[in-house]
Fold each of these.
Amino acid sequence: MTLIDTGFVETFRHDGVVALRGAVDDRWLGRLAEAIDANMASPGPYGKNHADEGGGVYFGDYVNWQRFAAFRDVADAGPLGEIAGQLMGASRVQLFHEHVLVKEPGTTSATPWHQDLPYYCLDGGQTVSIWVPLDHVSKAVCPHFLAGSHFDRSTYVPRRFKTLLPLEGDTSKYKPFPNIDEERDAGQLRSFDLEPGDVIAFDYHTLHNAPPNETGARRRAVSLRFIGEDVRYVARPHEVSPPFPEMGLELAMGDRLPEDWFPVVWQG
């Protein structure tokens, strides 16, 4: 079964990001909304408000798919696992983790430019995050992506979002973080007006940010992170997020990621 046109796959591979319209139907949106509400009411150990003091509410939490079944179900019983497989060119798709991100109205905190891969305890070419908004998202509050920034597979210094200082540990192997000028680089920027059901898919190497939500509307989203069969475990010499080694994951460099931690959600 083909869920997406080959043109979208080509855009994803060329730009490192693509918007897919109407990828998630109302039934799945309803289940995800219920799961987000339940997650916010009962955060996991890593759930918190990421907003600056007095700057509104920016709730984030991750690795709760075992408590809130919709986060996994939308990938295996729903469409997202197969979509991930088609975008990555993978025959076997695992859920790396889900990440709930809710910016309430009037939240002034922005997410700075960054790249996801160096924060993760893995490496490989078959990676995709699928960002699923549950509310209308205008370009004013939509994440921005630097098209083509994934192409040479460069990895840049992973930084703390509030201070922009490198993560604790050895980050010397990474390239210095590039200077991104949104006015100068406007031709490469991708941002989208989205309705519930639309999604954005992007490579773990793709540079992106997220503006504040200074509108009068909520911006609820869950990002599902997927990996294909070429991805392997990497022991980073610095902190990682999510902190899977601290959670008890014990692997050697180059190991496949185990299915009990990272379930298979689609096979072609």
Note: The domain at 6-249 is CATH 2.60.120.620 (Jelly Rolls).
Amino acid sequence: MNSYDLGYVIGVSAGAAIGFLLVVVLLKFSRKDRSLRCKFDERQELIRGRGFKYGFFTLLIYEALNMAYGGFLERIVVREVIMAIGMLLGVTVYASYAIWKDGYFSLNERPRRVVIIFAVLSIVNILLGLVYIWRGDFWENGVIDFPAVNLAVGLMLLFVLVLLLVKRFCGKEADEGQEDK
């Protein structure tokens, strides 16, 4: 796929616009007060800042490796997928840190709704990725093409979802252990 084709640019732009609108709608749906603005306490803000820092450095290291080995990688994966994976790795590191340190959910957020949203988005993206593989759109000329981003996003969301569930389960066990004392 030539990334400079007008149809490609329009398709990616339309997909980004639709994705942005979907995020806005889902954010309003996940908030108790239907606000787009998240409310965090000071401790959560510190945790989120540290998570952003770790996510940024993950992206920085990934891009340094991409500079060193990008020529090899571009033989098997298109440049856009390589870049998207770097962004997804940074987001995953941030989310993982924030979740594990209890800084992920805002004070006005409904965690159950966020988990449902992540589950739905994960399933949709993984299924889209599998459809692209089945139709043969996943590869072009032996190179993994842009539709692989759906599969990558789906797997990232699945990882974050599993981490949310593990954290919730571990948190309940810790709370039960403290009640016994």
Note: The longest strand covers residues 139-140.
